[in-house]
Design brief:
The chain has 257 residues and is of the alpha/beta class. It has helices at residues 24-37, 56-59, 72-82, 94-100, 102-110, 151-154, 160-165, 181-199, 214-217, 221-235, and strands at 44-48, 63-66, 87-93, 116-121, 170-177, 204-210, 239-242. The longest helix has 19 residues, at 181-199.
Amino acid sequence: MKKVFERTKGLTEIPMRYCPGCGHGIVHRLIAEAIEEMGLIYKTILIGPVGCSVFADEYFNTDAIQGAHGRGPAIATGMKRIKPECLVVSYQGDGDLASIGMAETIHSANRAENISIIFINNAIYGMTGGQMAPTTLLGMKATTCPYGRTVEANGYPFKMCELLSVLEGSCYLERTSVHAPANVLKTKKAIKKAFTYQLEGRGFTMVEILSPCPTDWAMTPLQAIERIKNEMIPYFPLGVYKSPDPKAKLVPVTVGG
């Protein structure tokens, strides 16, 4: 019998601990498939975050390190500078990247650090109990804004792709989602683009992925998918926010300086 599907070698056989309907498992699979298909399993260094995906270093069949909350881009910077031949990936959630790690994210992009960030945006602090995140939508309820986020009390949700797109050091920024099969396929293509640009030495790349969190949204998985489609995408439009000029001359990757 012809084999048409098998487990990617980019993942270990450790069962994932994510809630039913969570998008982390889908994205893990996409990253692992991309790494395997690009022949990079033994050349990848993953930076795991603090948050729901804190055990990511157990799930990926690559070298990995777990960093302090929000420090993924800083750790990735150091790893890439001493191991420029490796693919270095920082996997982060919205609280990790856009709250405590905002400075590290912006400065890494501004310095054109040759790293890739996979940014999971589910608009909530998942692991710690559902607090408001920097990307929590206006009107959306959380444990720290039980009546809904307001501009007067909390300001506007951060749009990270738009924010980083104005920095000269950012190379490739795309926002995708995993709420439907077609979008899952587009997300995989975006991840492979980000990794390819890093291997070419083009600079900072980030894929922002809108992802459901049924548990902390107090929804069923199907309701969470509808929220992404009807509420998140209108505020966080999908698409490419920055891409490199294909005719641009590549700058050789250097270490130190």
